[in-house]
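As promised in the previous annual report, we have extended the structural survey to additional targets. Below is the entry for Pantothenate synthetase.
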Amino acid sequence: MVEVIKTIPEMKAKVKELKKQGYKIGFVPTMGYLHEGHLSLVRKAKSLADKVVVSIFVNPLQFGPREDFREYPRDLERDLSLLEKENVDVVFVPSEEEMYPSDYQTYVEVVNLTDKLCGAFRPGHFKGVTTVVLKLFNIIQPDIAVFGEKDYQQLLVIKQMVKDLNLDIEIVGSPTVREPDGLAMSSRNIYLSPKERESAVSLNRALELAEKLVKEGEKNPEKIKKTLFEFLRMHPYLIVQYIEIVDPETLDPVEVIEKPVVCAIAAYVGKARLIDNRLIKP
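The corresponding structure token record, generated without further manual editing, is:
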């Protein structure tokens, strides 16, 4: 059976024991309701470390007041079964009270990188992400932590926090895992009806279209964004929140595509807010 730990003191004691034995610790933070994308992060961590810790915690700080914190899918028994098959060493499953006691009052915030893309539409979201991730880093003290490239902005924000705060943790990005038809795997895909699911695939197709246009020599990001918007608008149940073409390091919009860029899309499909992105090289 995979070892499940629910309290911070127990988790810290376990880490101390592993470190004393000289093990290199890999860490994968999740909000649970695991899918093949999460499991790919676990496998990456296993390939880079001696022992792997996975956390499952639906973090209230990163949800806005009208977002889906209460509805977010949860199935701990299923998650533990999947992690056991992957031979994960420890699963850390703290409660909300364990992470944020009633007198909790400290927050961590990366600026600039967080005020664009998803950050522009989800105020406070990344402050919640960096706060919980730093807490988890302090509790688990990993040598390596693995994050998915599907949440590209989050990956950059975490790397910036680690750099700025001089943390001795290597942050590793892992490629987006997709369904056979190209839809990026997400725990929120469960919200999609069969008809909405058909429309959701268009996000990845729009990114493919953007790449095709760039490869054909289009250098004007505004023209590409307009083409993508028109393409996505043809799909029912889908409302575009943003389409941006940005610098891969700063996330600032580019005026001319002359070097690699990231095309990032966020859209509501039914009630599911989905994101996807692609690194495009001219």
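The longest helix spans residues 125-140. The mean pLDDT is 98. These points will be discussed at the next consortium meeting with the crystallography subgroup.
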